[in-house]
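--- STAGE predict ---
source: upstream dedup step, 1 unique chain passed
mode: sequence only
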Amino acid sequence: MKIRLLAIACMILALPIIGLCAEKTDPASIKPDASKVSLSASDGMPAAEAFESLAKQSGMKILLESTVKGKVTVSLKDVPLEAALTAACKGTNMVWRKVYIDPKSELLDKPDRFAATLRLMSGLSFPDMVVAASSNNKIGVVCQQKQGVEDAQDKIVKALGLAPVYLVSNDALVAAKEAQKNTAVNKFTQASKEQIDMFMKMTPEEREQALLESLNMM
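--- STAGE serialize ---
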């Protein structure tokens, strides 16, 4: 148990800061989009077909996780893209995220891995911080405050040359499937996640004590 805690602590120190910024949408916070789209699917339209239509009309890249299936029932005319995405997902387990990412990232060709990466990021709790320097030259920013993200977003996106993409996923379905598996790996992953969260909430003194006790068990 204590050896595992030491390993988890090492994982935290080695965690790469991924070069993407994600926004999980809140319908109340949707801002007007320059492009307007329409969608006539009052009788039901396959989800893939509906999102493809929205992508073509808006000129934006919309990626779908393989769990996004079923039909979309909605009728829209000349509405902002993000409002259309919210309406299409309403009443389903689907969620959409707007992400700024390197246009050359391999994640753009692997929507399932992309969605899994975002779920992992959103599932871990870190304090707002800036890694300004390190011996391995890896630096980065972790910021979960909405205002802080909005203030820095434009500058970061331009500086890193990131491009916007929309990702539609079915987080609830994935979670249900994982719960059904109930494998040793899943149990270990969940336990590790809980320990990471606990470790991050400790004071520096408590972390040092926990690491020392782990070393004594080796």
